């Protein structure tokens, strides 16, 4: 077997993350003490640190053989080993997400997560060296998370105020046929065209960064008065399409067992871009729509969504 120090850096990183993806779910299974029902989601806190501070984090855990573990990985292992809290995703779903983060592209990634939950430390560890940003609808939850999470794990989180309600999902789904939403190059143009699906409260960082992986696991959508994920799904797809020519983005859609998440992801992330599905998690690989030959919103062999909610 090759010594770890003789492997190229990119391969060492992939092996490390693959190992973490295998070990953490097993740890979660051992530590799991309760199953939280979808109707009353409970989320666990995450820790304070801005991206600039994360970039300065160079501490490592080294054994006698010279093997090193990045500090975020160590912090995540210690956090979950000492806590009864476990992520909402199952082991199989977490493995799918880990594949999206560790395959296709080498080097650190930009990871955007809609939602701040019990898996915050996991995403920071899996994406160590990259930038991980969380968008959360509950400002008080962000404050509580920053106060309670281990200080060794960085947390870059922003509050988003959504202006949709789940009860309007049927009407919003019909915007799949509206040029104001599906004939625009980016969210700025969609806002100018008065697309009703654009979340108006997104922070500036959303449009300033090219996201390699986006996980849509929020906002809440378990009753008709909640915001629902319609706008988040649309925004994720538009962010992927607006990237530089030739780029692709992995968009992970959670809770696809629910009608809104299922139908909106198929309509606005496109069925043809779906590459994998495990449990309640569906993975799309959405290509950039920049360049000389701009493709249609979805591949031409797909009919516009005609389903109703």
From TrEMBL:
Topology class, membrane: Single-pass membrane protein
Main subcellular location of this protein, as a coarse class: Golgi
Source species, domain of life: Eukaryota
Compositionally biased spans, kind Basic and acidic residues: 49-65
Species the sequence originates in: Urochloa decumbens
Name assigned to this protein: Polysaccharide biosynthesis domain-containing protein
Protein keywords: Membrane, Transmembrane, Transmembrane helix
NCBIfam families given in the database record: A_thal_3515
């Amino acid at each position: 077997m090759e010594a770890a120090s003789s492997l190229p850096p990119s391969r060492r990183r992939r092996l490390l993350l693959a190992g973490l993806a295998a070990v953490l779910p097993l740890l979660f299974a051992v530590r799991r003490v309760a199953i939280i029902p979808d109707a009353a989601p409970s989320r666990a806190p995450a820790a304070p640190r801005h991206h600039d501070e994360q970039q300065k984090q160079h501490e490592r855990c080294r054994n006698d053989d010279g093997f090193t573990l990045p500090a975020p990985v160590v912090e995540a292992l210690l956090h979950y080993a000492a806590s009864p809290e476990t992520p909402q995703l199952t082991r199989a779903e977490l493995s799918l997400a880990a594949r999206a983060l560790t395959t296709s592209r080498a080097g650190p990634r930009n990871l955007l997560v809609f939602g701040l939950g019990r898996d915050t430390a996991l995403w920071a560890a899996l994406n160590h060296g990259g930038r991980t940003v969380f968008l959360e609808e509950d400002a008080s939850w962000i404050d509580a998370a920053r106060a309670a999470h281990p200080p060794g794990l960085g947390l870059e989180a922003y509050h988003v105020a959504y202006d949709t309600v789940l009860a309007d999902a049927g009407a919003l789904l019909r915007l799949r046929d509206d040029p104001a939403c599906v004939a625009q190059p980016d969210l700025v143009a969609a806002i100018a065209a008065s697309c009703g699906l654009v979340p108006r409260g997104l922070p500036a960082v959303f449009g300033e960064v090219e996201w390699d992986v986006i996980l849509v696991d929020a906002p809440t959508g378990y009753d008709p008065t909640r915001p629902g994920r319609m706008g988040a799904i649309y925004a994720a797809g538009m962010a992927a399409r607006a990237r530089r020519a030739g780029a692709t983005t992995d968009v992970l859609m959670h809770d696809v067992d629910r009608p809104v998440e299922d139908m909106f992801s198929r309509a606005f992330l496109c069925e043809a871009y779906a590459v994998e599905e495990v449990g309640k998690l569906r993975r799309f690989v959405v290509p950039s729509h920049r360049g000389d030959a701009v493709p249609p919103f979805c591949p031409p062999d797909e009919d516009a969504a005609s389903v109703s909610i």
